[in-house]
Amino acid sequence: MAARIEDYALVGDMQTAALVSRDGAVDWLCLPRFDSPAVFAGLLGTDEHGFWRIGPAEPMPVAEPEAAEDPQAFDAGAFDASIFQAVSFDDSGSFKVLPPTAAAPAPPSTRRRYRGDSLILEQEWDTPGGTVRVIDFMPPRGLPERGAVPQMIRIVEGVSGTVRMRSAVRMRFSYGRVVPWVHRVDVDGGQTRTVAVAGPDSVWLDGAAETYGRNLTTYADFTVTAGERISFALTWQPSHLGAPDQPDAEEALAFTEEFWHDWVAQCTYQGPYREAVVRSLITLKALTYAPTGGIVAAPTTSLPEDIGGVRNWDYRFTWLRDATITLSSLLRTGYRDEARAWREWLLRAVAGDPENLQIMYGIAGERELSETTLDWLPGYEGSVPVRIGNGAADQLQLDVYGEVVEALHLAHMTGLARNDHAHMLQLRLISWLEQHWNKPDEGIWEVRGPRRHFVHSKVMAWVAVDRTIRMIEQTPHEGPLERWRELRDTIHADVCEYGYDAERNTFTQSYGSKELDASLLVIPQVGFLPPDDKRVIGTIEAVQRELLTPDGFVLRYRTNGEEEGGDGLPGDEGAFLACSFWLADDLAMIGRVGEARELFDRLLAIRNDLGLLAEEWDPRLQRQVGNFPQAFSHVPLIDTALRLTAVGGLPGL
User: What is its EC number (predicted)?
Assistant: First the structure.
C-alpha cells in the first residue's frame, strides 16, 4: 500500500524524478522522462505494480533460499511470467523455480532529511543492532561531466553497530502492466549484471550484494557495519543498445552535491524565510526538464484532490500558467539561466501558431496530450480513474495570455537579454486577444462544465494588453498604442460593470454569478485595481467569509459538483494551497501584515518534514492531497516570502 502523499521525498535529475517513502521504497519513477511510463508505479496501486525498497530486514533471521527438487531452466523464447511464483539464478545465469515467500515490509525510517541545500535524501533507521543510513539521489545528466542515461543511486551506510538489510526490486514497465524479462549477463571484466528488458526499455541493476529472485522480485540480503558503505544503482538504457556504464556511486554523489551547492549559491534571497524559499527553489529546479527548459507542474499523475474520488489528473506537462509564475519566482531570486531557457522553450512550443496557443504542452513542446485511463491500476487509495495525458489541453483559457505576456514583460524588466522573436510573439498574442477577449472560456481552474465569462480570465486579458503597451512605450517596437489603450480601458470597464456585485461589495467568479472564486485575489497583485480600493478590500473579506476552511485555508471555489454553476465533476476537493498564499499576499498589501504572517506560518507548518507541498490540503483528513510536489504551491510560497520580507522592512531582498 502506498504511503501518505506527504510521507514521500523527491529525488530527481532534472529530466525525471522518483518518490521515496519513509520505509525506503521508491514507489514512483518514470523512465527516461517525467512523462514516460513508470517502471515503479506502486504509488497508484500496490507492490505488484513496481517498487524498490531498501531498509532493515525483519528482526527474525531470514533463511537462505533453497532450490526446488526439480529446477526448471529458463527458456526466454517460451517465457510466461504467470507460471513463476518464485525464481532464483543459478551459476550459469538461468532461472530456477523456488518455494514462494513474501517480501518483509521495512519499518519507517527514524528520521530523514536532505543533505544541506541539495536534492540528496538521507534516511536513518535505529534498530536493535545499530543505526543505518540510506542515501538516495539521481545525478544530473546531460552535462559534460555526466552521461545521458538516468540513474537512481542508493548508498547504504553503517552508522553504528551491525544491521541486517534487504533490497527488494520489482520492476514493472508500462505503469505496472508489463512484467519484464529479468536475467543476468556477463560483461567485460568478468562481472555479472542484472537487467530487466521489455520492448524498447531496459533497466540495469548493479550492486555489491549478491541478488536472488523470488515472486518475480529481485532481492539482496546483506549486513552493514559502522563505517561500511554498500551501493546500488538502477540505470535505464534503450534495450537495443549495449550495457550502460556502471556508475561510480561515490564520485556521482560528490558531483551531485557540488552541483546543488553551486546552484543554490546563485540565490539572491537571504531573508528570514530562506530555508523555505531555498527548498522551494530546489523543488522548482527539480521540476525543470533540463534539455528544453520546460517545467512540469508536478512529477506525478492521478494523485487525488479528493481521496477516493475522480478528481485525478496527469500533471507531468508544462502548463504555461505554472511555468510563467515559476519563471517569475526564479527571476526574482537570481536565476536568469532558467528564465532564458524557458523563454526559448516557449518560442519553440508556440512556433508559428500563437493564435492557437494551448494552455499546456509536453515538456519538449509536444501538442498532442490526449487523455486516457489505465484500468489495471486501482489508484491511490482507491481513487480512480488513473489518467495519463490531459484533455484540458484543448480548453480555451484566456488568462494564459496574460500570464505569458506578464512573464515576457518581467524578463525584459529584469534585464534578460532582448529577444526580437519574443517581442513579435507578444504582439501577435495581443492581436489575437483583441478579437477574442470577450468570449467565454473554461477559466483558470479548467472546469469541465460549460464555458463562462470568468472574471479572472478578463482581468488577465487586461494584464496582457497593459504589459504590451508598457513594452511598446519602453522599446523601439511599434504597435497601435492608441487602439490598445482604448482596448485596455474597455476590458477594465467591462469587468467592473459585469463582474462586480455592488450589493455584496465583491467581484464574482463569472459575469452574472453570485459565486466567489479565490482567483479574484490576484486583482491587486497584477495592478488591475489598487490594494486600498474598496472593491478589492470587499473581495478579500468576502473570500474570508465564504471560502475559508475551518482551519483557515482557502478553497478555490464551492465545487457544487454537476449542478448549474458547478465545475462539472462529482465530489469535492481540499483547500487549494496557492490560493491560501494569495490571501496572505493580499492581507499584507492592505496593511494587515500580522494576519498575513500568521497565515503564512500556518502554511509553512503543513509542509512535510522535508519542506514539500502537494497541490491541496484536506481539512477533514488533515493531510496533503493532489499531485506532489506541486510547482503551483511552491511558487506562491516564494512570492509571499518575498512580499512579507519587503513589507516588513526586513533584510534579505
Answer: 3.2.1.28
What's the pLDDT score for residue 410? 84
**Which is nearest to 447 in space by CA: 297, 323, 564, 580?**
564
Contact at 8 Å (CB) between 597 and 644?
yes
What are the residues facing 151 on neighbouring strands? Answer: 235
Same domain, 157 and 32: yes
Q: Is 586:528 a contact under the CB 8 Å cutoff?
A: no
Burial level of 234, CB count in 10 A (0-12/13-18/19+)?
buried
How far apart, in Å, are the Cα atoms of 609 and each of 6, 270, 508?
8, 22, 37
Establish if 624 belongs to a structural domain. yes
Helix (H) or strand (E) holding 164: strand 151-170
139-143, Cβ contacts within 8 angstroms, sequence gap of 24 or more:
139/13, 139/247, 139/252, 139/255, 139/256, 140/13, 140/14, 140/255, 140/256, 140/259, 140/290, 141/13, 141/14, 141/15, 142/14, 142/15, 142/290, 142/291, 143/259
For 537, the enclosing helix (H) or strand (E) is helix 534-546
Q: Where among 261, 290, 309 does a domain terminate?
A: 261
332 neighbors 264 (Cβ within 8 angstroms): no
Tens-digit pLDDT profile for residues 61-90: 334 444 433 333 333 333 333 323 334 444
Q: What integer pLDDT is reported at residue 147 of this predicted model?
A: 60
Cis peptide leading into 385, omega within 30 of 0?
A: yes
The domain of 50 spans 5-261
Cell numbers representing residue 360 in the block: 499546456
Same domain, 319 and 229: no
CA angle 198, 186, 56 (to 5 degrees): 75
Are 315 and 256 members of one domain? Answer: no
Name beta bridge partners: 89: 95
In angstroms, rounded to a whole number, what is the distance separating the alpha carbons of residues 205 and 194?
5
Cell numbers standing for residue 55? 531498509
Domain boundary residue, one of 233, 261, 289: 261
One-letter amino acid for residue 204 of the chain: W
DSSP state of 485: H
Q: Which residues are within 8 A (CB) of 421 and not within 5 positions of it... i.e. 6 or more apart?
A: 347
Q: Which helix (H) or strand (E) holds 193?
A: strand 191-198
- The helix, strand and coil proportions of the chain, stated in percent and rounded to the nearest 5, come to 35, 20, 45
Q: Pick from 157, 167, 198, 159: which is nearest to 39 by CA?
A: 198
Residue type at 29 in one-letter notation: L
Distance CA 645, CA 296 (A): 28
In this structure, what CATH number is given to the domain that contains residue 299?
1.50.10.10
Cell output for 414 = 529584469
CA distances to 156, 169, 219, 452, 627 from 165, in Å: 9, 13, 10, 58, 31
Question: For residues 427 and 478, what is the distance between their CA atoms, to the nearest angstrom?
Answer: 9
| 530-556: pLDDT as tens digits | 999 999 999 999 999 999 999 999 999
Alpha carbon 617 to its chain's center: 16
In a domain, 197, yes or no: yes
- Say if residue 65 is in the same domain as residue 138: yes
Based on the fold, state whether residues 199 and 326 are members of the same structural domain.
Answer: no
Q: Does residue 266 lie in a domain region?
A: no
Is 653 a member of any domain? Answer: no
d(CA 290, CA 341): 9
Residues in the chain: 653
| Helix pair angle (336-350, 420-436), 10° resolution | 60
Residue predicted with more confidence, 326 or 630: 630
Number of structural domains found in the chain? 2
pTM of this prediction? 0.90
